[in-house]
Specification:
The complex is a heterodimer. Chain A is 25% helix and 37% strand. Chain A is of the alpha+beta class. In chain A, strands 7-8-9-3-10-11 form a 6-stranded mixed β-sheet, with helices on both faces. In chain A, strands 2-1-4-5-6 form a 5-stranded antiparallel β-sheet, covered by helices on one side. In chain A, strands 14-13-12-15-21 form a 5-stranded antiparallel β-sheet. In chain A, helix 2 packs across helix 3 (108-121), helix 2 (93-103) packs parallel to helix 4 and helix 3 (108-121) packs across helix 4. In chain B, 78% of the residues lie in helices and 0% in strands. Classes of the chains: A alpha+beta, B mainly alpha. The A-B interface holds A 45-47, 72-80, 82, 84, 86-90, 99-100, 102-104, 147-148, 151, 157 and B 163, 165-166, 168-176, 179-180, 183-184, 187-188.
Chain lengths: 357, 278
């Protein structure tokens, strides 16, 4: 169990977050580069000292500014995988993995055996006598994971463990890493900028934006109810904020947003709400739509972006007020003759709009 | 104006060639003169005289001892300079570099005033009946004083160049700073440390001014090779030349060896010489 609340100021940047992770669980901290993810990991590892705060793992206090406690990294019992792995270039793979247990005082022979077993578990036992420079990115990543976990840490810290890999090996390693993390008894903090990795690995996902956590929750909660524009963008949905101002019969309610009125599916609550519009619910047409859609916004096409990997879906960004992103088929783009600058009407039904508090 | 720029280019090339030629002549002529002055057979015979051999043995023993001392005392200093930002580090760096540019005679006077009978340290040593000046130990101290900057500069630069990620990785792998230094930092910086030790040894081998002032010129006890060359100049030119050629060969071998090891000694204020890639 990790409980940490730390703050650190560095020039104009300030990090101030509180995180928790249960033993055996994975906390993913997701955010853009520069949001403070690596800084947070370095504070947890003890490589940098927070200005204020407290870090405790399994009841042991590693850092407490008010009590003057600051356990150095080598006494924290952590496993740390840096973004580029930082395997020692002058040591063989076996000696790299054995390094931690050797530093703990294990005799050379036993440490070597432990290292071999850890490498075997990662499926790279044959690499033991090689040097890191001879390994591929995926192999280095497995060795780094073996090195970080062979000491049986109380907290595992992973800094973008997949970002240094090419696309092909990333797919393979993602699956392996997931099953490895599921076997670990310790808490894991996994930072990434990739929303895909966040949803694949995170039992709990914390979204970090310019040094602060803007949303923390279980994966499904986050997927269903994004509460920040960043998360909404990650998930590819349109997010608006507004106030519920009235409801009519048939399960439709009205929400006033800064940019206009919306008809939404009645959330059954009052007051301030978040509103998400799934881009696939939005229909585009050159003329005002004649159908039953209650929400119609007019604006120019900003940008047309093919949506990988499906291939035939296309995301269309609109200069409507509020700004919206629609997802339509490629055939629709061709049929309507959509191009940047062209004025269109974006329409969607109230039942396709989700409001929640 | 292609013709004009071509003409200008030619003058530039000629100017560079003349300057380089003049420099090579200035550096090369004295060295060549040393080598061709005395026939090899005579050189060999002069080297094998008891006086020359005594100077050679003394030089080797003292320079090796002083280099060992430089490494033992300099490595911790280089570690501190390379890894700890602290108040007054610049001042300490200058202090450590100072012997590099200080005239060795100034170093000699300083050593005499410190360790001489009336000196700060000399008086304390005197209570125990110890006296350093004009002993072989004084030779070693003089060499240590003038040669340690070469080692510390190279070792500091080498340690500083080790990627911080490795130190971080070591720390997260249970390695306290001592363990991390022995197993990670030092092995990764080893080429620079060895290069620094070699430069320091070469400087100690050639040390003259501080030695003659602080240790005197006693054959067999304090008369090292450079001092023997100086004495030979007045009494026996052929011996002086023979010892000079020996020193020349030793220095040349050290520098060439460092070059061949694909490492130039990294002296920060000189930058890294061309061709010293890795």
């Amino acid at each position: 169990m990790l409980r940490a609340a730390v703050a650190k100021r560095r020039g104009a940047f300030a990090l101030d977050v509180a995180v928790e992770a249960a033993a055996g669980a994975v906390l993913v901290v997701v955010g853009e580069s520069g949001a403070g993810k690596t800084t947070l990991l370095r504070l947890l590892a003890g490589l940098d000292a927070p200005d204020t705060g407290r870090i405790a793992v399994e009841g042991r206090v590693w850092f407490d500014a008010s009590a003057g406690v600051a356990v150095p990294p080598w006494e924290r019992e952590i496993g740390f995988v840096a973004q580029d792995y930082a395997l020692f270039p002058h040591l063989t793979v076996r000696d790299n993995v054995a390094f931690g247990v050797r530093a703990q005082g294990l005799p050379r022979r036993e440490a070597g055996a432990r290292a071999d077993a850890a490498l075997e578990r990662m499926g790279v036992g044959a690499l033991a006598p090689r040097r890191p420079a001879e390994l591929s990115g995926g192999q280095q990543q497995r060795v780094a994971l073996a090195r970080a976990t062979v000491t049986e840490p109380r907290l595992l810290l992973l800094d973008e463990p997949l970002s240094a890999l090419d696309l092909g090996s990333r797919q393979a390693v993602r699956g392996e890493l997931r099953s490895l993390l599921a076997q670990l008894a310790c808490a894991t903090v996994f930072v990434t900028h990739s929303p895909v990795d966040a949803t694949v690995f995170g039992d709990t996902i914390a979204v970090i934006e310019s040094g602060a956590l803007t949303q923390v929750g279980a994966r499904d909660e986050l997927l269903r109810h994004p509460r920040s524009p960043y998360v909404a963008t990650l998930l590819g949905v349109n997010l608006l904020r507004g106030t519920l101002i009235g409801r009519e019969t048939g399960g439709v309610a009205h929400v006033r947003t800064a940019e206009g009125l919306l008809a939404v599916a009645d959330p059954g609550v009052d007051g301030d709400v978040y509103v998400t519009v799934n881009p696939q619910e939005i229909t585009l047409s050159p003329e005002p739509p004649a159908g039953s859609a209650q929400n119609v916004f007019r604006g120019a096409v900003l940008e047309i972006v093919p949506e990988p990997p499906a291939g035939d879906r296309v995301r269309v960004a609109l200069a409507t007020s509020p700004p919206l992103v629609a997802e339509v088929t490629r055939q629709a783009v061709d049929a309507l003759g959509l191009r940047p600058g062209m004025p269109v009407h974006a329409s969607f039904k109230a039942t396709g709009v989700k409001a929640y508090r | 104006m292609p013709a004009r720029s071509r003409r200008r280019g030619r003058w530039w090339a000629i100017g560079v060639a003349v300057a380089v030629g003049a420099l090579l002549a200035l550096l090369g002529l004295p060295l060549a003169s040393l080598v061709i002055r005395v026939p090899p057979g005579v050189l060999w015979a002069r080297l094998l005289t008891p006086a020359s051999l005594a100077a050679l043995r003394l030089s080797l023993v003292t320079s090796v001892l002083s280099t060992l001392a430089v490494v033992a005392l300099g490595l911790p200093a280089a570690y501190v300079l390379a890894t700890r930002p602290f108040r007054g580090r610049r001042v300490l760096e200058v202090l450590v570099e100072l012997p590099m540019v200080l005239p060795p005679t100034v170093a000699g006077i300083g050593l005499l005033l410190a360790f001489g009978r009336a000196g700060l340290a000399g008086r304390v040593l005197g209570w125990f009946g110890l006296s350093i000046p004009f002993t072989t130990l004084a030779v070693v101290l003089a060499q240590l004083f003038v040669s340690c900057p070469f080692f510390i500069a190279a070792a500091t630069a080498g340690l500083r160049e080790v990627d911080g990620r490795y130190a971080d990785a070591a720390a997260t792998l249970r390695a306290d700073p001592g363990h991390a230094f022995r197993r990670v930092l030092l092995p990764l910086a080893l080429p620079s440390v060895v290069a620094g030790a070699a430069m320091s040894w070469a400087r100690a081998l050639g040390e003259f001014g501080a030695t003659i002032m602080f240790a005197g010129n006693l054959p067999g006890r304090t008369q090292t090779l450079p001092l023997a060359v100086y004495m030979g100049l007045q009494t026996d030119l052929e011996s002086a030349v023979a010892l000079s050629v020996l020193l020349l060969i030793l220095s040349f071998t050290v520098l060439l060896g460092l070059r061949l090891a694909h490492r130039t000694p990294r002296v920060p204020w000189l930058g890294r010489a061309a061709g010293g890639g890795r």
